[in-house]
Amino acid sequence: MEMKRNAEDNFKKLKMISISLDKIQNDFCTLSEAIDVWKDLLDFFEKNCDSSEIEKLKDRYDMAVTPPHFLANMLGPKYNGTRLSEDESDSALQYVYSYHPNVLAEIINYQAQCATFKPYLFNSDTVNNISPMAWWSALFKRKLISNDLNTLTMQLFTAVCSSAGIERLFSSVGLIHSKFKNKLGRRKMLKISNRF
């Protein structure tokens, strides 16, 4: 019975990990969403695992996420950095101060939801049904944010958090353009790859 319980517990853990991996390896998962997926996984492990497993996951978390991840989560209107710890928020702002100091004031105004960032912009219906990139683009088109902040947000929200899509592409091309088919031209190879 104990072996059965251990197997069931391990199955639950592995299932949660596989769901998280599927979300993160999605071609459209952004850096801000990745933080939310990691936080869900950490919450699950804290409720269902022992301290050694939690520590291993936290070590993995520390290796996987960086200050730009935290900044993307902070600037994502859907997430707004609500699940970030104080240290994570500080590292995101330190990153901005080090590499983009000219937009730090605008980011602080964004966090405080003052000046150009009116409360109606953060309506849950709005932020849940629009991409962060579209949200920030709309503010830029209305000339409510600077070009520098627009450039930073576009970089953060067009970056995908996983290289899985690229790896799938190389794998597909590897099947088509093999050692035996190395004389295929670019056009013919693209025609064949469109079949996959």
Describe this structure in words.
By secondary structure, the protein is mostly helical. The chain is 69% helix and 0% strand. The protein contains eleven helices and no strands. It has helices at 2-24, 31-48, 51-64, 67-75, 86-99, 104-112, 124-128, 132-141, 147-158, 164-176, 186-193. The model has no long low-confidence stretch (mean pLDDT 89).
Distance separating the two termini: 46 Å
Share of helix, binned:
55-70%
Secondary-structure element sequence? HHHHHHHHHHH
Structural class: mainly alpha
Domain ETS: 35-97
InterPro entries: Ets_dom, RNaseH-like_sf
Protein name: ETS domain-containing protein
GO molecular function: DNA-binding transcription factor activity; sequence-specific DNA binding
Give descriptors for this structure:
single chain, 196 residues, mainly alpha, flat, ETS domain-containing protein, Ets_dom, RNaseH-like_sf, sequence-specific DNA binding
SSE blueprint and pairings:
Blueprint: H1 2-24, H2 31-48, H3 51-64, H4 67-75, H5 86-99, H6 104-112, H7 124-128, H8 132-141, H9 147-158, H10 164-176, H11 186-193
Helix pairs in contact: 1-2, 2-3, 2-4, 4-5, 8-9
